[in-house]
Structures are given as structure tokens and as C-alpha cells.
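in:
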């Protein structure tokens, strides 16, 4: 699934970043959270319209789209780190 390689988010300069010392979502590690205001999306004419019409300001981690995306990212990561 290449859903996230054929879509682009436009942001403005508002927002900022903050440091979080123990992020519970990532198992208690320190992270830097960056937040921006979305101004809309641009997408390839061949992008799946179901994906284009979804909410883009938040992530439903239980959605089929997110599950497919993370599964594909795992596959891509394994392929990139596999040497023959």
C-alpha cells in the first residue's frame, strides 16, 4: 500500500515543538513532539479516493488503513535491512 507516498500535507508556520521526557505511547522514551496546522492535502490523481476522503487531522490506530500502513512499513523496513 503506497497510500502515504502519493499524498502531501500543506502546513503553515504556526505551531511548535515540545520535549516530552517519558512518552507513554512510545514506551516511556524521551521524544520531541512537533505540531503544525494543516492547510489541506494534495494528492496524486491515482490515490485511492477512500483514503483521500478520510479524516487527516487525527489517527485512528485501530483503522484498517493505519494497520495496512504500519504492516507495509514493517515489510519495507525488513526488506531494507535484509542483506543477501
Amino acid at each position: 500500500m503506497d497510500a502515504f507516498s502519493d499524498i502531501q500535507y500543506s502546513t503553515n508556520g504556526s505551531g511548535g515543538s515540545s520535549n516530552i521526557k517519558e512518552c507513554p505511547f512510545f514506551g516511556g522514551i524521551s521524544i520531541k513532539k512537533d505540531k503544525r496546522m494543516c492547510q489541506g492535502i494534495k494528492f496524486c490523481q491515482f490515490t485511492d479516493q477512500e483514503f483521500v476522503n478520510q479524516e487527516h487531522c487525527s489517527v485512528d490506530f485501530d483503522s484498517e488503513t493505519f494497520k495496512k500502513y504500519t504492516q507495509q512499513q514493517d515489510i519495507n523496513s525488513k526488506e531494507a535491512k535484509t542483506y543477501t
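note: The first helix runs from residue 49 to 52.
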